[in-house]
Design goal:
161 residues; alpha+beta; Ubiquitin-like (UB roll); Translation Initiation Factor IF3; four-stranded mixed beta sheet; two-stranded antiparallel ribbon
Length: 161
């Protein structure tokens, strides 16, 4: 093939090199496994540049999803809870996943239901959001993972009543 993508036909390699040199371009083997092998006369440097630009554009369009972690305690106060909830919503709106972890200390392990209630409260306050991982106890830590779905405006405790 020549630089205008027109087929020249079956040509000896030395003659193809002469044609490429006369045009001031490169002879590039496009399909080596074909019988006979297919070569093309083109500006190889320009071709590589376009390929790198195409890859860069695709990479730019990609969005990496990060896993953010917010830590709670069973005795987290209302003010701290609201701040952490706003942070969770901000992370979800940015498109990140959020891992909510609840750490138990000492005798708090005997009252795991308080931790489960707190995680369920977070789930209710977030509204209709995708739960990737239900509450799971791992040692002294209970975790739950949320993904962005549909974040409704959260309501404080006083607004719910």
């Amino acid at each position: 093939m020549d630089e205008k993508s027109e087929q020249i036909g079956i040509v000896q390699i030395d003659q193809a090199l002469i044609l490429a040199e006369a045009a001031g371009l490169d002879l590039v083997e496009v399909s080596p496994m074909a019988k006979p092998p297919v070569c093309r006369i083109m500006n190889f440097g320009k071709y590589q540049f376009e390929q790198s630009k195409r890859k860069a554009a695709q990479k730019k369009k990609q969005r990496l999803i990060h896993l953010k972690e917010i830590k709670f305690r069973p005795a987290t106060d209302v003010g701290d809870y609201q701040v952490k909830l706003r942070k969770i919503i901000a992370f979800l709106e940015r498109g990140d996943k959020v891992k909510v972890s609840l750490r138990f200390r000492g005798r708090e392990m005997q009252h795991r239901e308080l931790g489960l209630d707190l995680l369920n409260r977070v789930k209710c306050d977030l509204g209709s959001i995708i739960i990737e991982q239900e509450p799971k106890l791992e040692g002294r830590q209970m975790t739950m993972v949320f993904m962005k779905g549909k974040v409704e405006n959260y309501k404080t405790k006083s607004e719910r009543e």
